[in-house]
User: Fold these one by one.
Assistant:
Number 1:
Amino acid sequence: MERLSIDEIISKIEAEETFHAVSEDYSFTLKIDTYVHYVCGAVHDGHQFREELWDNCIHTEYERWYEEDPETKNMIASHPIVIAGLDSRFEYDLNRAPEDAVFETAWGKQLWHNPLPQEMKQKSLDKHTNFYKVVHALINKIESKFGVCVVYDMHSYNWKRWDREVPTWNLGTSNVDNERFGKDIELWRQSLSEITFSHSIKSTSKINDTFQGNGYFLKFITNNFKNTLVLATEIAKVYCDEYSYVNYPEVVAAVEQQLRYKLPEHAYNFYQKHKS
């Protein structure tokens, strides 16, 4: 893996080079093993938190982990194009618009002992800006090369906080073209429902049940590229114990192994249907 500047990453994308990179400021990773018609993203996978923010932050490390999406990058790691955040959403949230990306409160609790100075906020917002420069270059390249693109936008959610039965998988589709892509969405929902787990975890999948797909990553791509479908895909945190801070690596591995063939199969069908 190379450490590259934003300009270097974009130049490599434009030249269709394959590479594994971490951004110069260590805020995200991008690997491109080959140029294909689909992209995998894990914008909330990151847990890094700048040291200069530690003393001012009221939330504990566990509270940050609880609201992040740990292991989502590992679930898609084998695919040819993967972009993933390294920083915690508590520093800046890649799935929110720039004006809302640096939190003052998080999940009903004040985040900072003292308000963040503007220069600290700006440091975080610069990372947000750079990430989206690369996203734009990447999707532009894929759409230009293949005519269409499908993005698997991987997230997780804390299912135990709900007071009703919730699905193992949720697809958020309220901000995509359901008339055009409805069958592709349903095929992905169906495919996810067939994933099997150990531990007698049942696999159910629904559309717009717990979340509706209102994230900035989806909206940014959808607003900028008319032939790209973003599938906001949420897995309930059945792969960890969200209260005891323990991950279940065998469940993560089961998801990764099944997505290894389910995801390219879905992407292939999408491409065959929409490439013209």
Note: Residues 52 and 120 are 9 Å apart (CA to CA).
Number 2:
Amino acid sequence: MGLLDILLGRTKPVAPDLDQLFALPSAAVTLEAAASFTPTGRGAVCFATVEGAAFEQTHREVQALLDADAERDGPPVELRRDDFGYSWLVSERVPEQLPQLVNDLHAVNSSMEVNGFGPQLLCSLAGFQDTAGRSLALVYLYKRGTFYPFAPLPGAEQRRDNALELRVKATLSNDLRIEQDLNRWFPLWGAPGL
């Protein structure tokens, strides 16, 4: 970064660090102990919609890679589109397989990055739920290299539980690199995998 960048207040973007995803299993232990949220076994990778043969080849490679996992029940990765036009590669495991789900998310992100789709990657999420049925996602922002909690209110149309999100932020601050700019805690309404 040069002197002109400093004077103009420009900053270099944070390089994605996909290895941060591997902190999720230990964060899940903290989250369960402090707030009674347990993994659902669902997770997803979100990216700007991509069309064409190159993406289809990447999707086939990801499926072949995850198909090789003999412990998996059901389809390895399913491609879905949301109401906002974004694409999601969704992985489902049994709830006890959070480490394997994290491996799936890492593999999907890495494959897309290696095949030139890194600029389209937006976020990854792992789903959690408590005994009262409340949903929570721990969202990894690809371009920031940070996490944030997203807690939609049950039964409420596009409303979130901000108090719960802030409690989770405080609870997991030693386990995950938490996004400090709350304006970047984007709502993921209707996100597959949540």
Note: DSSP finds five helices and six strands in the chain.
Number 3:
Amino acid sequence: MSINKVMDLNLVRTFMAVYQCQSYTKASELLELTQPAVSAAIRRLETEIDKQLFIKKGRGIEATSKAHALANKFQFALDTINDAVNEKNTLSVYCAEIILHALVGMEQIDFSESPRSQSMMFEHLREQKVDLVLDVVTIKDSAFIIEDVYTEPLVVVCAKDHPRIQEQLTKEDYYRESHVIYSGRWQGLNGFEQIAQEPVKERKIALSVSSLSSVIMFVSHGESLGLVSQSFAKRWQQQLDLAIYPCPVNLHLANYKFIYHKRYINDPQHKKVRQQIMDRLGNKKSFADWMDI
């Protein structure tokens, strides 16, 4: 009966060092081991495969044909291991749609749009299906760290050639017109109700859509108003021929936060990615400046 042997990875690394250096002395210096330890490791590997790997040549050594064959296979295996380790250094990040446009393309980060279900978002954080959330949502749970990252105002957008809105937008104008709204709700309230700093009146809803991209698309081809972040409006102003106005209703700023599990608070890679995102968002006074629009 044959028994499959499990190869000691340390033997593989030691062998590759000796093979590449063609010297026990140089390999021991590279590995920060003693020369006897390196020699003993090679003898152990030779015993396991029942083949000689190196022969003496003058004052040095030379690899045998078996060593050349093993080196090719071992290098492939080590490259595979290194690739797998590097893949783990890519963090999975849920990001609010309205801010995602400014962050895509960053290295070592796999961005996805935040799911509409908050319970699913936090469940994925707990199950380590996602490493970090950047969104305006929040939660009271001692298992999570919540850090403020970036704030910006919300603005009203409409078609540039809107027949009744030109140059300025009053509160009376705002409530008189119809609205395209994002259908997401938090604790029974929509986004407008959540961030309002004053009592709000009922708005005339022309359309309820499932994404903020849909909000600006529909308002750009009609007479309704929409409410989005300033950076998002600036990003699409020229392409969609939008007009942008300060919201005449007093609103809180959109406050984007990092949300992540406490297990990552001191994780080096996680800290690096959080800092990279904060650096990207903090390089300019506002997203409008950052987007250079």
Note: The CA atoms of residues 155 and 246 lie 5 Å apart.
